[in-house]
Amino acid sequence: MVQILKPEVRAQLMRAAEVVFAERGYRGATVAMIAHQAGVSTGNVYRYFDNKDALFYAVISDAFVASFMQLVRRRVHLLAASADITRPVGDAAAAESELLTFWLENRLRVVTLLAGAEGTRHEGFGARFADELVQLALERLRRETGGRRLRPVVRSTLQHVFENTVRTLGAILAQDGGDAATREAFRAFWSYQLAGLAGLERWVISDDR
């Protein structure tokens, strides 16, 4: 007898997997947990996905990761080109809104990608994300100082700042109090973070060695 697969059941399994992967991470999640979350038998999961890996990569696809980074890079590049990074306007403001909308629409997948992907090919994504933000910030500082060599403390400070950014991003998205509350939380965090980065930039520029 031909096995009939239903798109709605596949979608139900993927939604359940998003929840379990976000809560448990890839390593802590099991197919049985996902089946229980979806309200189906474990055997039924295997009708749609060969194994846990296949289910994980259906949820956290390479295309999803690429879209995440494309939006981040657009937002950061436009912000870095702004005269005042604490007051993004025009394209920079639009890019910020687009990125935040993407995060809200994919809340659980972002949480998993940042902190729950150990054991997959996306393991260490959160650290790589922080490193890229450090490099982009350093590029702006070098440009603003006319290519002057920056002190090691600048890089280490930025590393701490952006590692905290990754943790905060995951924490805000993990607390689902609704889109409005999440947007407000990000506005509060970004106002604090960007003011701090602007202060660091002023210190670097005024540093007379």
What's the β-strand tally? Answer: 0
Instruction: Characterize the biggest β-sheet.
Output: none
Please tally the helical runs, counting DSSP H or I stretches of 4 or more residues.
10
Class per helix and strand makeup: mainly alpha
Low-confidence residue ranges: none
Cα end-to-end separation: 79 Å
Mind telling me the C-alpha Rg? 20 Å
User: How many domains, as an integer?
Assistant: 2
What overall form do the CA principal axes indicate? Answer: elongated
Q: Mean pLDDT, nearest integer?
A: 92
Helix content: over 70%
Strand/helix succession: HHHHHHHHHH
Task: Report on this structure.
Helix 2 (31-38) packs across helix 3 (42-48) and helix 8 (125-144) packs across helix 9. This protein has two domains: 7-58, Arc Repressor Mutant, subunit A (Orthogonal Bundle), CATH 1.10.10.60; 60-206. It contains ten helices and no strands. By secondary structure, it is mainly alpha-helical. The protein has helices at 7-28, 31-38, 42-48, 52-59, 62-80, 91-105, 107-115, 125-144, 152-174, 179-206.
Question: Descriptors for this entry?
Answer:
209 residues; Arc Repressor Mutant, subunit A; mainly alpha
Q: How would the blueprint of this fold be written?
A:
Elements: H1 7-28, H2 31-38, H3 42-48, H4 52-59, H5 62-80, H6 91-105, H7 107-115, H8 125-144, H9 152-174, H10 179-206
Summarize the structure.
Helix content is 76%, strand content 0%.
